[in-house]
Amino acid sequence: MDKFVYLFNEGHSGMKELLGGKGANLAEMTKIGLPVPFGFTISTEACNAYYESGKTLPSGLIDQILESLNQLENNTGKSFGNPANPLLVSVRSGSVFSMPGMMDTILNLGLNDETVAGIAGLTKNPRFAYDSYRRFIQMFSDVVLDVDVFFFEQLLEETRESKGYSSDPEMSADDWQEVIEGYKAIVKKHTKKDFPQDPKQQLFLAIDAVFNSWNNQRAIVYRRLNKIPDHLGTAVNIQSMVFGNMGDDSGTGVAFTRDPSTGEQTLYGEYLINAQGEDVVAGIRTPLPIRTLSTEMPEVFQQFSDTCHRLEQHYKDMQDIEFTVERGKLFILQTRTGKRTAQAAIRIAVEMVNEGIIDKKEALLRVDPDQLNQLLHRRIDDSFERKQLAKGLPASPGAATGQVVFDADEAEMLTGEGKKVILVRPETTPDDIHGIIAAQAVVTSRGGMTSHAAVVARGMGKACICGCETLKIDLRGGKFSVGDIVVNYGDIITIDGATGEIMLGEIPMIEPELSDEFQVLLQWADEERDLGVRANADNPEDARKAFEFGAGGIGLCRTEHMFMDANRIPIVQSMILAETYEERNEALELLLPMQQGDFEGIFEAMQGHPVTIRLLDPPLHEFLPDKEELLVEVTKLQITNPQSAKLKEKELLLKKVRQLDEFNPMLGHRGCRLGMIHPEIYFMQAKAIFYAAAKLSERGFEVKPEIMIPLVGHVNELRDMRKLVVDAAKLVKEETGRDVYYTIGTMIEIPRAALTADQIAAEADFFSFGTNDLTQTTFGFSRDDAEGKFLQTYIEEKVLPDNPFAVLDQEGVGKLVEMGVELGRKTKPELKTGICGEHGGEKSSIDFCYQTGLDYVSCSPYRVPLARLAAAQATIRHGNKKAKDTFISIK
Ligand code: PEP
Ligand code: MG
After folding, report:
1. What pLDDT score was predicted for residue 730?
2. Which pLDDT does position 887 carry in this prediction?
3. Which of 301, 571, 737, 867 could form a disulfide with 294 if both were Cys (CB 3.0 to 4.6 A apart)?
4. Phi-psi region of 418 (alpha: psi -120 to 50; beta: other; left: phi over 0)
């Protein structure tokens, strides 16, 4: 005879296929000695036998169920249908894979006209007893007898109305009894039979219903969608009900084994004496903190603490527990891994290592790298209920509150007066930089995740929202509107850069806190990881921040940001406008010491770690005023002051702007193409790097400059640019007498570069994959246009799984990265490879980079801790690979 039924003390967690996930879990909890309400599981094989015998319960199965029921009665001291001490059970389906909503749980099976009176007496709460009975009839009739809930709900509503009540809690025990009579009439009318009063009959009907639910339409569709085989079958769990409302020696509550918001090792939760779960949720009575249970029921509390300890030792993680005390006896109804804040996740992981519950590797895998990000930025208090005014792109995380201003000068001035402001602009330009520095946060109504505002704000670790198109900004009127709501200059708003939400008024914030445990976890990550983590930083301040966060070098210093400084832009413009070689050189000579100063600061901040400096990348027109605005100015001057020198100057500027104008700047005259046509610009930059390196080495610092050429598509471009850099190095060496160690490499950000990486490697000491441009050029998307226009729809409609500018497209762009590494190393086995696109700070992309054999990832300073943890996780998951980049750890 096959065994179809297993008491909870006969199974364990390894029996999922036979007992279903829930059944195996209940058996495991029973096995480790937890006080779980007793019960039994009818196996998935029984479900299959049920179908094989033409949807009837095989006789052997019926006997086994009756025998197990007997044991359950003995174990609980209660019995089916006995009004003095009735056994009530819950009936749940439970397959191997969780199939949400397959069949609703039936609670309180065993209630009938007699046992309900028993429960009324035992709980001294007839209202509760009759309410439970009417719920049972409603649920059972819906799930088992196939009577639509609509009829029950309609009757309940009519009864409530006729009595002048507005909600269920106003119903008395007598009222519920009246409803029950009505419910029974509904059942009789629709099934032509009385509602079953025999608990055993109720049970067998419910078991049939669970088995039938395996093949209902909902379940079949769900299985097909999730590729779950049809032959698995479902188990049925029958578990005794316990009641926390059987007097002052009973109660119910929820608790975490550790504080889920701080991670502190202390029981955290609350309970109510003489109450059921619904009472806790309903919030009518105020629950007591769990620690008072130690005085009210000391023995139960001791047992509860011991149980929590045992649970943690067994599941090796913080647990979220539901419990009930029935007449002095503790029952654990449910335990699951508890949700926690980022701060708690870190503390719990580290402390569990110290307590010997898990090892360091496990601790590192326990914390989601994305959670670290939250901790580095100020954020909105989770307990606050947000009311969103508008939503844009989450361009830079962090939260901020301030008065709305629409102008960078205004932002600077008000900040100088001690006010907090948020700069709101259609978009920002290099001219607004002082306003961005002064403001708490930046909001733009146009532009994508790589717009000027987004890039600058991220670099500064400042909150920013971009492309918030519902914001109608009226710069002249000093206001913006969203629908009917108008926000004026000076009004207070709060923004959340991590979600892109804008809210009215001030909202409570939580300050960032880097705990000791945070540092310890990252230290462990550094011990474990075999992938370098560098930072993208363009100035000494960002470099210092990056170093503080544990970056092992700079992977990308974008030199164009140094040109965008308000004091320098006029010189840059005169360099661009120069008519002759001499004029251009004059401007470049002025820029050289400025760049040199920047590089000295960065080298110093990085204390001997490598610094990759990329020569100028953007098209030159980005440093000139906007064409449309200039045209307006010129037209105005032509009317008001046609003879002025100013008009001549502006006309000249407009002519140059028109000359430099491009149909498609992303694919235009930028990157190394600038160096090829204007070698003097790159030559000046290379000299500035070497002068800075020579100066620092003279001061006793170690320096490791790595000069990087952007947007190379053909090896000849790199060959020419390499020669130019080598010449600059020679010249500086001759002048200073200092021999500086340096390398020359290239970005791989054009598909052709990846496809011909074997040729390109001959001229490169390193490759850095620029996956921002590589994604643009592989997909043929312009990022700003894509994110602003169609990408969101693509993601919502699952045309693409993710935004490929945030999460590396491994199948397409990733293939080019793999090819680039492989071909490059074929020519030059010692070739160093890294990534400096934004994907370098995204966990799944970091995992991919590690598997592809890159030596390092580089990301914005604020993402460095995240990247250190993700790199460690990749190493743990895939084993040690001996990457070649150096890295350091936070002291
Ligand atoms: C890239 O293209 O990935 C890159 C890092 O360069 P940028 O974003 O400056 O174009
Ligand atoms: Mg690029």
Report:
1. 97
2. 45
3. 301
4. left
Domains in the chain: how many in total?
5
490: its two tokens = 């000076």
The DSSP letter of residue 445 is S
What 3-state DSSP class applies to 535?
Answer: strand
How far apart, in whole angstroms, are the C-alpha atoms of residue 432 and residue 435? 5
pLDDT of residue 889: 37
Ligand nearest to the CA of 784: 1
Tokens of 299: 């023995």
Neighbours of ion ligand 2 (CB under 5 A): 749, 770, 773
Residue whose CB lies within 8 A of the most ligand 1 atoms, among 556, 783, 849, for a mutation test:
556
Beta bridge partners of 41: 6, 237
Same domain, 425 and 320: no
Residue 832 sits at the vertex; the CA angle it makes with 827 and 836, to the nearest 5 degrees, is 125
**In which residue ranges of the chain is pLDDT below 50?**
886-891
Pairing of strands 509-510, 379-380: antiparallel
Three-state SS string over 5-48 comes to: EEEHHHCCHHHHHHHHHHHHHHHHHHHCCCCCCCEEEECHHHHH
Helix axes 569-577, 645-660, angle to 10 degrees: 70
What CATH number corresponds to the domain at position 385? 3.50.30.10
- The answer on 632 and 609 residing in a single domain is no
Q: How far apart are CA 394 and CA 803, in angstroms?
A: 13
Say which CATH number the domain at 859 has.
Answer: 3.20.20.60
Looking at the structure, do residues 139 and 166 belong to the same domain, yes or no? yes
> Which residues are the active-site residues?
452, 836
User: What pLDDT sits at residue 891?
Assistant: 27
Q: Do 380 and 456 form a contact (C-beta atoms < 8 A)? A: no
pLDDT for position 883 = 55
Gap from CA of 371 to ligand 1 centroid (Å): 25
Query: CB pairs under 8 A, 24+ apart, for 726-733?
Result: 727/683, 728/683, 728/686, 728/687, 728/689, 728/690, 729/686, 729/690, 731/687, 732/687, 732/690, 732/691, 732/694, 733/690, 733/694
